[in-house]
Automatic annotation (TrEMBL):
SUPFAM superfamilies: Thioredoxin-like (SSF52833)
Listed PROSITE patterns: THIOREDOXIN_1, THIOREDOXIN_2
Thioredoxin domain span: 1-112
Name of the protein this chain belongs to: Thioredoxin
InterPro entries referenced in this protein's UniProt entry, alphabetically: Thioredoxin, Thioredoxin-like_sf, Thioredoxin_CS, Thioredoxin_domain
Taxonomic placement: Archaea, Methanobacteriati, Methanobacteriota, Stenosarchaea group, Halobacteria
Record-annotated disulphide pairs: C38-C41
Length: 112
């Protein structure tokens, strides 16, 4: 498995092959599709780290330039694009920068 742990223990960077497995193993997973050069994506990093630290959701990132097939599959045409998965299925997509509270509310809406 090519999963790499980012600078924090909780936000996990994935490759095409890993996404389905990790999402299916999580009751609620928030995936950010990003690019390295995206300024908004860089600004979202501390928000994602905070969510990973104190919510029960699995927080994941996937670089769309390295994983184009997966990005296309989930409609990530711009960065950042957030896809919320519940029980392995995508249930909500948000495009562009989001504030922390909006993402917390989204996770809480679908978390048991």
């Amino acid at each position: 498995m090519a999963t790499q742990t980012a600078k924090t223990d909780r936000v996990v960077s994935l490759d095409d092959d890993d996404l389905e497995t990790v999402v299916e193993d999580s009751s609620v997973a928030l995936v950010e599709f990003y690019t390295e050069w995206c300024g908004t994506c860089k600004r979202m990093k501390p928000v994602l780290e905070a969510l990973a630290e104190d919510t029960d959701a699995t927080v994941l990132t996937i670089d769309i330039e390295s994983n184009l097939e997966t990005a296309i599959e989930f409609g990530a045409q711009s960065t950042p694009t957030f896809v919320l998965f519940v029980d392995g299925q995508p249930v909500k997509q948000l495009r562009g920068g989001q504030n922390e509270q909006a993402l917390r509310d989204l996770i809480a809406q679908y978390h048991d």
